[in-house]
Every structure is written in structure tokens, then in C-alpha cells.
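Batch manifest line 377
LIGAND: protoporphyrin IX containing FE
JOB: complex structure
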Amino acid sequence: MRSVYYNDSLDTYFLTRFADCQAVLVDPDFLVPDLDWCAREVPAWREHPAAGLFYSSMLRRNGSEHERLRRLVGRGFSARRAAALRTSVEGVTDTLLDRFADATADGGAADFQELVGYPLPVAVMGELIGVSPEDHERFHGLGRDASRLLEPVRTPEDWGRADEAVAALREYFTALVDRRRSRPADDLTSTLLAVRDAGDGRLTERELVDTLVLVLVAGFETTASLLGLAVFALLSHPGQLALVQERPELVPAAVEEVLRWDTPVQMTERIAARDVKVGGVTIPEGGNVTTVLAAANRDPDQHTDPDTFSVLRRDSKVLSFSAGPHYCLGAALARMEGAVLVGRIFSRFRKLAPAGPPVRRASISLRSFDYLPLVTT
Ligand code: HEM
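JOB STATUS: finished
ARTIFACT:
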């Protein structure tokens, strides 16, 4: 069976096998599309602040420039900070679930995404970066609009929304950096500011602000997606949910299975730096490749019975956070948020149930719910 599909109109080779996707993601002969690529593909990119931000970010840089930015941001993800975040994730989850209980106490339905799915990662990203809680609300809309950038094919409307959101986020983070300059705190903004102000050229002011925007955008919509997908997957598989409720030690495996079965980030792109053979097909130098992470996660050569949702899988390897040099920096944090939420919501609400059809996000790259109505009694 063919596993590499070239699509003429999109001019990309779609890879659907786990082994092929993994090989490309870790191969230094495949690069992420960078600012030079963007300048060729989107000649008017200077008119789009969102393009400038995205294609100069670590997500779209290669080689030593990528390593430099990644190493600096990695400092903000220390083990100490991760441990501190766990306590706060638990506290925020409990508060949000209290609100969810109130909203559904009369037997009516409430939207999980609005009350829990979005506010939880916004609060966590806010704490990591150093955004004050009263500003969290604003980030919901801005994060959603900025994440239109992750679409493989962007409409003029996508660009418009992403540009406006990026301009607003840059303004916000410029002001936050100024505040931290006079009053540092224990957050990623202050960590990066210390590097910037060391004055040895490791980080420019623009890179500092844009990195904060990137981390927010990368870590918020994706995790909000995972949380909704996790709740929905377990509610749609009562036998599996019963297992998790009986044996809470299965919670991390349940989150892993959600990442595999309903992959939040469906695909990512690379460019061949030279002619390379993948899955029996030669990708020519300069050729675009789309690794379909969601398909790889359901590859029968990698996972037995791949379309079955089972929390009992052992050592299941997923590509949901990519692989290689761009492997998601927030993977541990996202898994932890997922595990805290799944553990707490299903032990607290034993009668949690869907209340009507959910609404999926109109998006090619991000698998997510815009609306997920649930009842608790
Ligand atoms: C379920 C939640 C998440 C998913 C599914 C996800 C997925 C991904 C994927 C697929 C990539 C790599 C894209 C590529 O290879 O081209 C990535 C990169 C990245 N993610 Fe995540 N992510 C999630 C949560 C987070 C969180 C919580 C943060 C921050 C706290 C974060 C920060 C980043 C950053 C900074 C990168 C760029 C890494 C690099 O280019 O070196 N992500 N993520």
C-alpha cells in the first residue's frame, strides 16, 4: 500500500507511516520552513506581522539559530518550575471544577471548553510566563486568532485575525517586559530578560517579546484541545473510563492514548535539504513534506489494533509532540495538565455525560472542540 502521497495542488508529499514521519523529523536533511522559505512563498510577508513572528521563532528556525533560542527558553522550563506548576495546576483545576459544578448543579448543561478547557491552560501559561490573572480572559480570543497561523493553508481571513492578534500580543508582552525590568519575578519573562540584559547579544529585544508570544500560542490552544479531546474520548468509551476510575494509576496511560487516538496537532511540515528517499519515494531537494502525525499514531505497523481506544496499551510511542530537534518543549507540562484534569474530573463527577453534540473547530491542523456541552448529574 502506498504511504507517501504527493498532492499537486498543495505541492507537498504527505507521509502517513509512523516510521517515515519519525525518520524525517529526526533527519538533519529535513529542515523546517524558515523565513527565507516564507519570503519566497508569501512575498508580501512584511505586511503580515504574524508571518514575521512565526517564521523568525524557534519553531521555524534551523541549525545553530534554533539551538540558541531553544536553549534559552529551556531555562524557563526547569524541574523546579515544573514542580511549582504542578501544585498550581491542581489548585486551578479544583477552582474551575467548582465553577463547573455550580454551572451544572441544576441539572443543566455547561460548556466544558469555556469553563475548564480554555481557562486551565491560559492560567498555567500565564503563571509560567508571568501574566497577571486579570489579563487571562483577553488571551482566550487572542490565542485562538494567533493560532490560525498553524493552518497549512491560510485564507485572507486567517491572516487578518492572526496579524491583529500578534500585534496585540506583542504590545502586551512589550509592556510586561518593561514592568519586569524594574521588578523581576520568578517567571519565564524575567528569566529571558536577564539573558537579554546581560548584553552579550544572545537575545534581541524583538526575540525576547516574540518568544513569549510563541510560547503562549504554542502552549495554550494545543493543551485546551487535548483537555477537551481527553474528556470526550473517555466519555465515548465507558468501559475504558470505568477502568481509569477503578485504577487511577492508569490516568497517565489514558492521556497518552488520547494523544495517540485523537492527535491534537494533526501534522507538521519540513523541506528536503537534498534529494532524500523516504518510504521508497525520492523527495527532491527543496520538496515540501507534510508529516501527518495523526496518521502515524494510527499506523498498524506501529500500534496493534490502532483504531481501538485502549488505556491498557504499554510503551505506546506517539508522535503527537513531534520528534527530533523541534520536539515540543511543553510536552511534559501538557501531559501533566492532562493527567491532573482527567484524574480530578472523573473522580469528582461520577455521572459526567455529554449533553448534545459537540462542535468541532473548523481547522485542518488543530483537532479541537469549540463547544463541548456536559452535564454532571
Ligand atoms: C497537548 C499539548 C501540546 C501539543 C499537542 C503540542 C505539539 C507540538 C508539536 C507537534 C510541536 C513541534 C512542531 C514541529 O515539529 O514542527 C511543538 C513544538 C513546540 N511546543 Fe508544543 N504542544 C503542546 C503543548 C505545549 C506547551 C504547554 C508548551 C509551552 C509551555 C509548548 C511549547 C512548544 C514550543 C516552544 C515548541 C517549539 C519547539 C522547537 O521548535 O524547538 N507546547 N509542540
